[in-house]
Amino acid sequence: MRPVAALIALTLSTQAVTSTAAPPPAGAAPNPTTATVTLVTGDSVRITRAPGQPDRTTFLPAPGTPEQTVRTTRRNGHTYVVPASAQAGIDAGRLDPALFDVTTLLAEGVTDNVPVIVRYAEAARTAAGSALPGTTGGRVLNSLGARSTRVRPGSAFWKSVNHAAVTKISLDRRVKSGLDRSVPQIGGPAAWQRGLTGKGVKIAVLDTGIDPTHPDLAGRIAAAQDFTGAGDPIDRNGHGTHVAGIAAGNGTASDGKYRGVAPEATLLNAKVLGDDGSGTNSSVIAGMEWAAAQGASVLNLSLAGGESDGSDELSEALNRISRQTGALFVVGAGNCYGGAPWSPNTVTAPGAADEAVAIGNLMLDGSVAEDSCRGPRKLNGALKPDLAAPGTDIVSARAAGTDLGTPVGDSYSSLSGTSMATPHVAGTAALLLQQHPTWKNAALRARLISTADPQPGSPAAAQGAGRVDADQATAGGPSVNTGQLDLGLRTWPHPQTDVVTRDLTYRNPTGTPITLQLAVDFEQPTVAPRLSATQVVVPADGEAKVTVTADRSAGGIGNFAGRITATAPGADPLVTVIGWYAEPERYELSFTAVARDGSPVPNAEVTLQRLDGDQPDLGPEGVVRIVNGTAKLRLPPGRYDAAAFIGSSDRTDLVLTGEFELRKDTALTLDARKTQAVDLTIDAKARLRGSQLTHVRVLAEDRQDLTINTGAEPHTFGATRITTAPTIGTAETSFSRRFEAKDTVYDLLVPWTGKLPTDTTLRFKRDQFAIVDESFGAHVPSTPVVERRLGLTPASAMHYPGAAAELTTPARRTSYVLANQAKWSSSVVLDEASYLVLFAPTRSYHAGVRTAERWMTPVLTSGLPGADGEEPAAVVHNPGFLAVSFAPFANSTSYLTPWTGSGTHQLEVTRNGKQLISTEAPTGYGRPTDNGPADYTINLTSSPDPKYFRYSTKAVSRWTFRSLGGDEERLPLILADVDVPQTDLLSQVRTGRPSTVEVSLRHQFGSTTTAKFTKPNLELSYDGEHWTTLPLTESGGKYVAKLTHPTTAAGKSPSLRLTATDTAGSTFAQEITAAYGLK
Fold this sequence. Notes:
The protein is built from twelve helices and 77 strands. It is mainly beta. The protein folds into five domains: 4-16 and 593-850, no CATH class; 19-174, no CATH class; 175-476, Rossmann fold, CATH 3.40.50.200; 488-582, Sandwich (Immunoglobulin-like), CATH 2.60.40.10; 861-1078, Sandwich (Immunoglobulin-like), CATH 2.60.40. α7 (281-293) runs parallel beside α8. The two termini are 57 Å apart. The model is unreliable at 1-31 (pLDDT under 50). One of its GO terms (biological process) is proteolysis. Residues 451-489 are annotated as: Disordered. It comes from Kribbella sandramycini.
């Protein structure tokens, strides 16, 4: 795999802070997206995404707020943007970091009015009934002592968050929805023959709603409530109706063929998921509270959040409601799409809750579906899932007007997933409750699990006790006090002696003694628990105990599970799942964090990276949190390094541990007093505009990418000097700064590879810089633009040294760029909303060398840049596909991003005369094609946004060329750079004076062709109808046409038409309408 940098970067800026995040996966949509997310602080973050490129984030302070530090962290594919005003709350655990996870916010469609759950101290929980200032809507969540609400844009909410009664504010996360053969398979008809149909039992379906008009469910819904804001509880998705039909449909529309498990149960309809199949934590919690208050004995939740250890808010609320009301919660274990089969520790919330009965998905042959999430529970190894049920290709009720799943006639559809397995168990619980009306959750849970039918070939971590069995559950006969014996977590180092005993109590409700044959079926037979008896006689109307002894020291590490069965003559066995989890080799790593004044650091984030293996699970945040100067965690043995930013109001220190081995319990000190100053200054009068400090670790395999940005002036920096070079991968520390004076900027970036030198406070003179004369043209006077310069270190660390410059065009500026091994790429933003951005190709600078960068100057032509830049623009044949990304307007020095949403475009590509691409965009990103030599024709027509472009209003281009069609090949397109040096910064040439049109020909950057160009042909027209050929003279590698525009042409905009060929047969033709102006 390609090397990927693990980054820790610190950026100081007085204005908007821009950073990057991990690139999107292959196959991402070709068009860019730009979105602005408003944080709960009132500040905003602009996120721009383009295929194959890193996400770009720009922090936009709330109007009227003072400058503040902004920390941006990239880890595990997520970008967190945290203003300094929120950092202390996150460190103290009062603010959920997900509130500042812009990746999650965008994924959940949250761009403003952020949904939150506000929790209150025990003594102040009545305050949950009152909304905080700056919020709108919401509801009280009594089970959590909380209120859900949405934060309105502005600062009113943020000013109230420090209220003493508020203990935590968290993001109201989204959750998603995850019979003719399956019901008989679980023994439903046998229970019906006993007169058990669920009559009198309330099953609450918490889902996308229920269609009350469906014949199988009509007249069966006792109460319904919408918790999504849809306005009514009707199912317009189809998922909830399908689930309800499995649990309690009566089969009317199919003459009983697709009858549910409890066909006479009463339904409660809690619409907690919207019509798109998703909802929020608070909607689910509110639905659980409502259903329990309505008297639901069984609650079906065919939905899932993220993987959990059972401590999340959904699970916490479920546990409380279940313990308070005795209601049974039946929850899907989750669908783990895209992961490897049998991936452990993936059971999702709220199925991970202690009180939830988590359900896995079985195929109709009894095997576990590959996408059914597995146990044991994350982090603590608890037994999960609890049961399994048929959930694949299940036919059930279809809501009117929906097309979810595969239609089966007019009234039914077929769906698969743990969502379909779950209501089989909920319906079975209703049958049991009809039989035992006084039973509560504990008794129901024990009976359901202990009467399950274990399916061969699948471990308990996939199916729990086995397939739910309504027949045995309702058959009467002997019972056992529990269906699970969870013997807990064995932490490393494991004691030499570790014997655990538990008692099982078997009860006989009949008037005749029953003999039970006991056995242990353990997945690791050599460490199977022992029973005090293999046969026990349970007296009539009495009980008998059996002691279970497990020697946990005999088994090594990992998940250990199996079943204890107790079988009466002629009956199915009672099942008790037994298991434990033996933690693999782990050692305690403890951190002590010391500030520069010697005091304990109250709160800080430590980024921890394993260098020689898989990254450890550090929880949803992916960091280690320092609280009151310390932090502890348990990790597998290996080689690690760690870093933390320890800061004060005027200084931030990057504290590094360097590589360290963890082979025993280890204590490390992160000491800000032992850093050395990092500073870059210049021999010039200029004010500091920003700084960035970055530490990069490049490994041989993909690793997480971490970045931290801060800002606020004045500020100084320090970093730990690691005295030994890395033994795994490479290390690089780099520091950048931008200074600004009138019409002048200084950009400095210094990378240090390996370890820091003894002196990292450097002062630079003018002769160490390259000089860049910059002109910012405009077709429309007084156009505001934003300029920024991106620096790239040898380790590919990205630096944006300081705030972006806001300019009003036309304008001129001189940049001094420190010359060393760093490379630079500049960009100019015309319109962020439509991603109208010009880029300059990436280049190196040399001390004392003067160059020019001209932005928005004639002639803008469609094509490709003269070198690779920050964003890809190229036409490349790879084995099996063609990648086409044109810049709508480009020349050798700058180019417009191919991903702009501005203007109109039409791209047509043919291969050997057959159309390959046709799109209204300047890109045909990644289209499959055959290999082998082929002739290509590309036609591109682009018209830019007239708001910004008065000239080059239309470019019509045509390329023909031949591809070898084998390995990766940058195709030999002919490109022309057309310049009119006499134009001013408004792209106008004065008439009546001599001027020139200069044409430079080149092939696409990176092409290996050696073909020579023939003399091009250039024509000019003042009206687009009458064309005049301009004589061209070759001079210095350019073709130059000399002309004088007549004074009568003032106010007009001549068009240019150019054709060119090369000796390999490639051709190029281009017509530029209104190429420049005349005055």
